[in-house]
């Protein structure tokens, strides 16, 4: 600044806080990097199940009725289920990003059927890894046969995703626990494992779509990072919540669903 005689009278400085701009730029970069990584995983995951399916199908065509037919048919069934589950997760991830929550179609449903369908989602994976699922239901109480007002397919999908997550981050031969309880209108589901665990600061990130963490050291990275995002979306669509808790690395993970979906437990 100059005075009337043209001499310097002072300096005017203007400062602009760009912290918000930097934060947004970092978010954009994270999304871009996530998408790039996702496309890589997509190509990898779709190719891996298809290779053994195609090989087994070729052998079945060349040698109809040959010994080992059942084993090769089993390979086809397992790998196609894996591929179908992955594609379903992709579609679900797209819905979550566009609409925020998963659409649900509620109807009266039996809790036992929901649990059975969820266990079917993870059954083959547990068998391949020699893992066991321990279902914990109180001997006393109104749990077995309880009637729910929910979308049974979506609820089984959410619970199955939590069970798959527990399997993915647990040792081969490990035990995974599913505790089931009914408290008034609330259905409480607790999935617990003794796997690699999660640091406290990472817990809020578990439910973000496409967010992936370090894999189990004895297992290749798999999936698109959508299982728990779908679980949260389905829980919200039912008016409930799902939360995560871990004591840290090597201490396992607990996922708890609290869902106000119990319509009638008197018949349990």
UniProtKB/TrEMBL annotation:
<dbReference type="Pfam" id="PF00512">
    <property type="entry name" value="HisKA"/>
</dbReference>
<dbReference type="InterPro" id="IPR036097">
    <property type="entry name" value="HisK_dim/P_sf"/>
</dbReference>
<feature type="domain" description="PAC">
    <location>
        <begin position="1"/>
        <end position="30"/>
    </location>
</feature>
<dbReference type="InterPro" id="IPR005467">
    <property type="entry name" value="His_kinase_dom"/>
</dbReference>
<dbReference type="InterPro" id="IPR003661">
    <property type="entry name" value="HisK_dim/P_dom"/>
</dbReference>
<dbReference type="Pfam" id="PF02518">
    <property type="entry name" value="HATPase_c"/>
</dbReference>
<feature type="domain" description="Histidine kinase">
    <location>
        <begin position="41"/>
        <end position="263"/>
    </location>
</feature>
<dbReference type="InterPro" id="IPR003594">
    <property type="entry name" value="HATPase_dom"/>
</dbReference>
<keyword id="KW-0597">Phosphoprotein</keyword>
<dbReference type="InterPro" id="IPR004358">
    <property type="entry name" value="Sig_transdc_His_kin-like_C"/>
</dbReference>
<dbReference type="GO" id="GO:0000155">
    <property type="term" value="F:phosphorelay sensor kinase activity"/>
</dbReference>
<protein>
    <recommendedName>
        <fullName>histidine kinase</fullName>
        <ecNumber>2.7.13.3</ecNumber>
    </recommendedName>
</protein>
<dbReference type="InterPro" id="IPR000700">
    <property type="entry name" value="PAS-assoc_C"/>
</dbReference>
<dbReference type="InterPro" id="IPR036890">
    <property type="entry name" value="HATPase_C_sf"/>
</dbReference>
């Amino acid at each position: 600044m100059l005075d009337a005689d043209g001499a310097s009278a002072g300096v005017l400085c203007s400062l602009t806080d760009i912290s918000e701009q930097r934060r947004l730029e970092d978010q954009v970069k994270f999304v871009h990097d996530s998408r790039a990584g996702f496309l890589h995983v997509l190509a990898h995951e779709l190719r891996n199940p298809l290779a053994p399916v195609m090989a087994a199908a070729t052998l079945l065509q060349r040698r109809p009725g040959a010994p080992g037919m059942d084993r090769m048919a089993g390979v086809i069934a397992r790998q196609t289920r894996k591929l179908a589950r992955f594609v379903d997760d992709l579609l679900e991830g797209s819905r979550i990003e566009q609409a925020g929550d998963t659409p649900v179609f509620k109807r009266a449903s039996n809790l036992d059927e929901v649990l059975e369908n969820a266990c079917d989602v993870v059954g083959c994976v547990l068998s391949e890894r020699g893992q066991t699922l321990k279902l914990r239901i109180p001997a006393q109480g109104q749990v077995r046969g309880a009637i729910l007002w929910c979308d049974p397919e979506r609820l089984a999908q959410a619970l199955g995703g939590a069970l798959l997550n527990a399997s993915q981050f647990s040792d081969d031969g490990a035990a995974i626990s599913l505790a089931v309880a009914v408290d008034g209108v609330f259905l409480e589901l607790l999935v617990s494992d003794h796997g690699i665990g999660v640091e406290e600061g990472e817990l809020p990130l578990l439910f973000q779509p496409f967010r992936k963490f370090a894999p189990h050291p004895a297992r290749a990275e798999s999936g698109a990072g959508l299982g728990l995002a779908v679980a949260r979306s389905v829980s919200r669509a039912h008016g409930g919540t799902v939360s995560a808790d871990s004591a840290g690395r090597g201490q396992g993970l607990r996922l708890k669903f609290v869902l106000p979906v119990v319509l009638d437990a008197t018949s349990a």
